[in-house]
Amino acid sequence: MSTAPRLRSLRDRLRQIALFEVGGLLLITPPFVWLSGQPALPSLGLLAILALIAAVWNGLFNTAFDWAEGRLTGRPADRRPVRLRALHAVLFEGGLLLLTLPVIVLWTGLGWWPALLADLGLAAAYVAYAFVFNIAYDRIFPIGAAPQP
């Protein structure tokens, strides 16, 4: 008999990813364009590619993290304490940084160090956004209310 908590359904996880990525593009693109001095359309294209990478990483990382947390603590993800939420956001963005840095280098033609600085700026913005978004998402769509297969 398993005491592991329920995970989000595939439909709920897809909704979470879609809302997160669309919200991120809407919130992060304008300041990125302003701070980078890059034209809006190429910046939006780059950020859209990075969002696609992030969406795949989001599904994989969050499902694995929720599964591991549930097995270790018996607690569902929507009851995650604030310190663990902060660690979750940092680990998510750290992994994403490793996936996106080569794309930024190739897309922009920047060297590795300038691209790393740009990616770290994006990561910092997204860490804050991910922290707030996931708290809000868990409050609006608690796991107990999510339809399970």
Short overview:
This protein is mostly helical.
Description of the structure:
It is built from four helices and no strands. It starts with 9 loop residues before the first helix and ends in a 9-residue tail after the last helix. The relative contact order is 0.17. Helix 1 crosses helix 4, helix 2 (40-73) packs antiparallel against helix 3 (82-108) and helix 3 (82-108) crosses helix 4 (112-140). The longest helix has 34 residues, at 40-73. Helix content is 79%, strand content 0%.
Strand percentage: under 5%
How much helicity do the residues have?
over 70%
Oligomer: single chain
Q: What coarse outline follows from CA principal-axis ratios?
A: elongated
Number of strands: 0
Q: pLDDT under 50 segments (min length 5)?
A: none
Major β-sheet profile: none
Question: What is the number of helical segments per DSSP (H or I, 4+ residues)?
Answer: 4
Q: Could you spell the SSE succession in H and E letters?
A: HHHH
Distance between the termini: 19 Å
Radius of gyration, in Å, reads: 16 Å
Question: How confident is the prediction overall: mean pLDDT?
Answer: 85
**Global structural class:** mainly alpha
